[in-house]
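Good day; I would like, with your permission, to put a structural problem before you. What I wish to show you is a protein chain and, alongside it, a tokenised description of its three-dimensional fold. Here, with my thanks, is the record as I have it:
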Amino acid sequence: MNSNIINDLINSYTNRSSNSFITLYNQNNTLVLKHLKYPDYLIKLSNKDFESSKKQKDILSLLPNNYNNFSRIYHTQVDNSDGNIRTLEIIDKINGTSKKEYTNLEIINTINSLKKLHTNLNNISNRNKFFFPSLKDLFNGIISNAHMSTKTIATEIQSYKEYSSFINSKQEYITIADLVYENILIDKEQINFIDLDPLILGPKKLQFSILLTSNILIQSNQFKILSINLIKKFFSLYGYNDFNREDLISLSIFPLLILSMRQVDLNTLPKDDSSMYYKLKVILLLIVKELANMND
């Protein structure tokens, strides 16, 4: 993408050329605009941290040009033109539709696509020059602010020696910390990722566990049949056949982080199969039960 296109897009937005843009998305403090002259690129305004956006832009630029199942960031800047401070990004327009429910084939394709993306991110030769927060630092800080009901479950999980070995293992793998369905577009058999924020460093298996607990396991058709055997089946599809306590620990991370950040009271949370919080609570309780049942 050349600088002339970037300048033209920024100038059109700054000058409020409303007849030049189509609004594609305007929810959850995020605005996505398509320029009629440059339909292959989008302007995205959000509350994403600007420094995080810059690092994401730089590291994605190091991936091969022929690898195109994610949305690259070509330009990022702070914007306060409407009185609100937001991060403005120019990104790829990626084909596909976000889906709350996947077919079996779509699950397999998503697993394989994530595995490829995770491998490519961690094969970048000079990736160590980028500073990303580690899971250990992020996790400990967030859990300290959780509701007592979540802290109680966290404390039980942390009592296992496998928690210590997992959280203190080498935090060297770049990991996409949020893989909710809105961030994954399905275009027939092609799986595209549109927002890789935030990026953190963690153990290798954390990435797949986040896909399961932020997306696949909370899909209604999977949640209805939720079991440890179902989870083991998915781990096997990813290539992890030796399921153990550390894998259970890795599966607890996303639910604990989300429930802690939202300060959810698990004791008063009503049964509601449409609620993400309720589903994450059920997943956590299943993990706690299996941790106790699994042999040392």
User: Anything to note?
Assistant: The first helix runs from residue 3 to 14. The domain at 104-293 is CATH 3.90.1200.10 (Aminoglycoside 3'-phosphotransferase; Chain: A, domain 2). The chain has a mean pLDDT of 93. Strands lie at 21-27, 30-35, 41-46, 73-79, 86-92, 173-176, 184-187, 190-193, 199-202.
